[in-house]
Amino acid sequence: MPNRRKGGIADTVLELAAPYAEKLGLTVWDVRYVKEGGGRFLRIFIDRPGGVGIEDCEKMSRAVSGPLDQLDPIPESYCLEVSSPGVNRELTRAEHFQAYGGSAVTVRMIRPLPDGRRDLRGTLAGYSGSGITLDCGSGNTVDLSRKDIASVRLREDDFLEENEKP
Q1: Tens digit of pLDDT for each residue in 15-42?
Q2: Is residue 33 part of a domain?
Q3: CB 74 within 8 Å of CB 58
Q4: Is 30 helix (H, G, I), strand (E, B) or coil?
Q5: pTM for the complete prediction?
Q6: What 3-state class would DSSP assign to 99?
Q7: Which of 67, 109, 140, 157 would be a feasible disulfide site paired with 136, CB 3.0-4.6 Å?
Q8: Domain tally for the chain?
Q9: Higher pLDDT, 2 or 96
Q10: Same structural domain for residues 18 and 76?
Q11: DSSP 8-state symbol, 4
């Protein structure tokens, strides 16, 4: 669960991009500004019911490119990427956790737990600003602090239609 600074580049771009996404019938799932190798990448993840296609990504990229150049929130050069968050999307914001309560998730911890595990699977049973409650089955629930969590991702099988689930 990334701890995002208010007013950072990602928040600024999210605020700029959201109205453009809405006009295209999309929502902005997340924004990330990262350094990888020698380059910097601004990634805008978009979504809509039924999923997004390459055309949606192209339209969103064209819609925000000019306004981003005009606002110039990033002083160095970067590569703009627009894509879907994918089926195993990472939950990063309060609205994600609220919308996907009761869903199967995989939680990756920053450091191993006392039993040596770093990855936990279960059902997202609760969320607060300070952490989550994970139902690991058989009545076993665990409260995990936000500061100890590296990521929370939906499990891919949640996106299969009921008649497609094994």
Answers
A1: 999 999 999 999 999 999 999 998 999 9
A2: yes
A3: no
A4: strand
A5: 0.79
A6: helix
A7: 140
A8: 2
A9: 96
A10: yes
A11: P
CB-based contacts of 73, cutoff 8 Å, min separation 6: 9, 12, 13, 16
Closest CA to 47 of 67, 25, 64, 14: 25
Helix H or strand E encompassing 18: helix 9-23
* Whole-number Cα distances in Å, 41 to 21, 31, 110, 135, 149: 19, 10, 23, 35, 23
60 plus 21 within the same structural domain: yes
- What's the CATH number where 62 sits? 3.30.300.70
Sheet containing 27-36: which strands, arranged edge to edge? 27-36, 39-47, 79-83
Name the residue with tokens 């919308």.
99
Give residue 91's identity as a one-letter amino acid code: L
Integer angstrom CA distances of residue 161 from 53, 92, 98, 103? 19, 24, 21, 14
Q: Does residue 29 lie within any of the structural domains?
A: yes
- Residues 42-84: tens digit of each pLDDT: 999 999 988 999 999 999 999 999 999 998 888 899 999 999 9
Domain that holds residue 112: 94-164
* pLDDT tier at 1, thresholds 50, 70, 90: very low
